[in-house]
Amino acid sequence: METKQNTCVFASVKQFITTENNGNLLIQCGLALFTIYILYKFFIGGRKNLPCRPVRDIGVSPASLGTGPKIDCVNPATGKSMGIVNALKPEEVKKCLAEAKIAQAEWATTSFDERRQVLQDFIDMFIANENEIVESSMKDTGKTRFEAMFGEILTSCEKLRYLIKHGEDALKPQTRRVPMLMGTKSGRLEYHPMGTIGIIIPWNYPVHSIISAAAAAIFAGNAALVKVSEWSTHSKILFEHLVRQVLSKRGHNPNLIQILPGMGETGEALVRSGVDKILFIGSPGTGKRVMKAASDNLTPVILELGGKDPMIIFDDVNLDWALAIAQRGCFINLGQNCISAERVFVHEKIYDKFCKAMADKINSLTQGPPEEGHFDFGSMTMPAQVDKVESLVQSAIKEGATLLAGGKRNPKYSKGNFFMPTVLSNVTEDMTIFNEEAFGPVCTIVKFSSEQDLIRMANGTVFGLGCSILTPDLKKAERVGSKISTGMLTINDYGASYLVQDLPFGGCKESGFGRFNGPEGLRGFSREVSVLTDRFPIITPVPRLIRYPIDPAAVGIIRQAILMIYSNGLTLKLKAGLNFAGKVMKNPKLLL
């Protein structure tokens, strides 16, 4: 009877499903249920019971109360002053640190959910204030709207998104193995906040550099003191207000992130102030001085010190494709990039075609003040850097290089820091421009024929930050890339690894050491604590073998244990095991 009823039920269900309208209805119901599940998962189920903190007064940042030398904030594209900001004196830097410590003590007790909430607020802040942030960067640096949008907004949002999604995983305790002799114990590695991170950034990305380092620092539970360059200080006024607004609205101490204006004296004061770690991004010369100053307090440092990155282009590439990547590698942000492709190595078979095509393209592009219209290139930021680029280009020409494009200050805009995008061919490894970082809009093209010569030349500078290789032959790219002294290798692209925030960023040789971005960057802002504890909730007795006074038989037992565990060969292990057992049987009390 039961079987007949089941058969009837199954038949009825089958008939219902196979009926066209009913089948469609089932599909619609399934989609509706799936949609409800997704909405619940991401909009309701993902919500946490976060503490409701009262809004705080935004107050005034201690970093905005400087009484030191006046910094005239000049728009590098127009030469016009945008206002005066006072640098911080050394004693004022210490006051900033004292306030940061108070804020960090509170912040360290927050959960990762609260920290994610603040970082999402930062993303919302970038989106809501996109135009103001972009224009502040344009006026501070002379870069175009595109460069500001891409380099300040997009990269910052991606950094924050990565931390929100994956930051907690990087900082979770890690289980570590224990040896057989310690079988009753378990080991783990924990990541704790360090305290306050001192961050010194350059002028090329004045907004992104602040939030990239500061967001990682606070996600790891720290406070952040960010010293900005005197050449891009004006944007700090807007950005500091926005950051403090986010923190205070969520009920957190707005002094958690402070943006310090100043020159060399302020930077040195920050290094010597007693912060718990320093991240410095800048030139090798200044980086060495930072390291020396930090050594007085044994303050650990991360140094990212620029590069002379090679871009290698083999003869099997599509020329138009390779040109597009090389142009971006050489001229993005007008070459003011630590990972700019400063040396473009091109195979001799396509060398002449590549040089002509590169020069034709660059000669066809436009340059001018971003506020006056749409241009492909804006101005450089730092006047002294224009002088350096001009000197390097003129030296290269005297040393035998061929000028194909640019090579001089733009005569149309004498008031701004305009150096024309430049293409040099016939560059050789004995030229000054081959070895010194230009940090400007110069494409130096070097001919190569054999892989052996290529690798020698690519490794022929004191730098080792990044490297790009263009070829459809991935085995060749991997083979050559493995022989380049570099911290980052990108195949068939340029600079893309920076948007892959799970990859650490940093170099070797005089390009520095330590990493930011990725799990390594977060952990670099953390204090590592090794924890060894009991595996089971019982107290393990201390064997008589290792108690004082030491029994004379203990040495022989330990010796046989060493041979049994560490000897190479089964026979030796068995022999030692038998001897161990014999000695233990004679002295059983020693293992109790």
UniProtKB/TrEMBL annotation:
Membrane-spanning ranges: 25-43
Keywords of this entry: Membrane, Oxidoreductase, Transmembrane, Transmembrane helix
GO molecular function: oxidoreductase activity, acting on the aldehyde or oxo group of donors, NAD or NADP as acceptor
InterPro entries assigned to the protein according to its UniProt record, in alphabetical order: Ald_DH/histidinol_DH, Ald_DH_C, Ald_DH_CS_GLU, Ald_DH_N, Aldehyde_DH_dom
Highest taxon of source: Eukaryota
Active site residues per record: 304
Domain Aldehyde dehydrogenase: 69-527
Family: Belongs to the aldehyde dehydrogenase family.
Stated name of the protein: Aldehyde dehydrogenase domain-containing protein
